[in-house]
Amino acid sequence: MSQWTDMYKQKLMTPEEAVKVVKSGDWVDYGMGTTQPILLDQALAARRDELQDVKVRMCLSVAPRQIIEQDPERKAFTAMNWHMSGYDRKKCALGQMNFIPMCYRNKPSMYRDLLDVDVALITVGPMDKHGFFNFGLAVSATEAITKKAKKVIVEVNEAMPRVLGGRGECIHISDIDGIVEYGNHPLATIPFTTGDDIDAKIAKTIVQQIPDGATLQLGIGSLPNTIGALLAESDLKDLGVHTEMLVDAFYLMYQHGQLTNRRKAFCRDKVSWAFALGTQDLYDWMDDNPFLAAYPVDVINDPFVISQMDNFISINNCIDIDLFGQVSSESAGTHQISGSGGQLDFTDGAYRSRGGKSIIALRSTFHNKKTGRDESRIIPTLAAGTTVTDPRSQVNWVATEYGIVNLMGASTWERAERLISIAHPDFREDLIKEAEKMKIWRYSNKR
């Protein structure tokens, strides 16, 4: 231990000293979610008057980024983001941040093969007796980022859970150029909240599609949380988890005894995951827990890996779906809301699984605050500029509070008919008229 302790002392520095490694024109990477730095971000922002053209990549910010707050006109720093949080969305709308499109499974390979990283500034857990620092809640592409970086500076937060692999969950002190200590500061959390009666109705429809021994992937939000809570109350047995995002719904299933991972073909007997965001209870469960195995996202989201697990059930929500079956889960027109994430990865992988199902779940309507009216989420065509997250050729099952339908293998008229059947009744006649105009409605269909 003394060897690594001596090295630690040699590399320990203040935030101000650490960020001196950043030069004008550099590509800097902040990592993802809870691995984004706090002190290093503040220190780098303080250099705004002496730097130019510093490009900073990040993902899913869980706190305000000072390089943006202190430089809103982007004179020194250009912020870019792989997946938008609420904060990121606002900054993107203001022109203070740019989005980076991706399929999430490709993120590590893009760093390995295509992208430059001059400096990585990453939050980690404390060093262990073997000289390793843990990436904690965001394994994801962090290993690929740090391996590509010319210089790696870590910000040590003692509150970061020590997660077990899998692989790719840690970095050795010999691969680090500087260490900054942040003390023991609580990590960002999000509450576990379930939805209303409409979400409960959708959840009930979906849970009926899940057999004993299924392996699950859930997205984020009140609807997936509602599904998880209903699963925890169900009689289903021996469920498994293989998910890009580890959320409290899985912890709830574990507490109720449904989660065993006994039937998984990949990483049997363990939950396999890439990053996590949730309550402190979730983080406490993850800490040093051999029941959980972290992997880089190019393993977790690989459709080939997903397809090896029988009865793989992928459940994600979306913003809109049109009558052709095109799904948007990330933008409204050109307004970026979140990101592609791994939805297409799991849509593809779950369909390939024997007995598997990819389910896109959505409420049939939303309340438009601008117009003051309820509007349909099932629409004739996506609005101009809207990003297609899942092409129509890859969409399998779609569920609303009015039922669940399969689109895979369906012609354009069948898709229109099935989607209209699960649209809100108030909008069905108008959708039929639009389908007729687009020549995707059979005149023999009942109205």
From TrEMBL:
**Keywords for this entry?**
Cytoplasm, Fatty acid metabolism, Hydrolase, Lipid metabolism, Transferase
Keyword check for Lipid metabolism: yes
Q: Does the keyword Flavoprotein apply?
A: no
Q: Which InterPro entries match?
A: AcetylCoA_hyd_C (IPR026888), AcetylCoA_hyd_C_sf (IPR038460), ActCoA_hydro (IPR046433), ActCoA_hydro_N (IPR003702), Butryl-CoA_acetate_CoA_Tfrase (IPR023990), NagB/RpiA_transferase-like (IPR037171)
Q: Where is the Acetyl-CoA hydrolase/transferase N-terminal domain?
A: 7-191
User: Which terms does the UniProt entry file under GO BP?
Assistant: acetate metabolic process; acetyl-CoA metabolic process; butyrate metabolic process
* Major site of localization recorded for this protein: cytoplasm
Its Gene Ontology cellular component terms are:
cytoplasm
Short name of one Pfam family for this protein? AcetylCoA_hydro
Q: What class of enzyme is it?
A: transferase
Pathway field of the UniProt record reads: Lipid metabolism; butanoate metabolism
Any GO molecular function: acetate CoA-transferase activity
What EC number(s) does the entry state?
2.8.3.-
Identify the catalytic residues. Answer: E244 (5-glutamyl coenzyme a thioester intermediate)
Q: Where in the cell is it found?
A: Cytoplasm
Catalyzes what?
butanoate + acetyl-CoA = butanoyl-CoA + acetate
Residues bound to CoA are: G219, I220, G221, S222, L223, I319, G342
Q: Which HAMAP family match?
A: But_CoA_trans (MF_03228)
Instruction: Give the UniProt family note.
Output: Belongs to the acetyl-CoA hydrolase/transferase family.
Q: What does this protein do?
A: Coenzyme A-transferase that converts butyrate to butyryl-CoA.
Please give the name of this protein: Probable butyrate:acetyl-CoA coenzyme A-transferase
- Tell me what organism the protein belongs to: Megasphaera elsdenii CAG:570
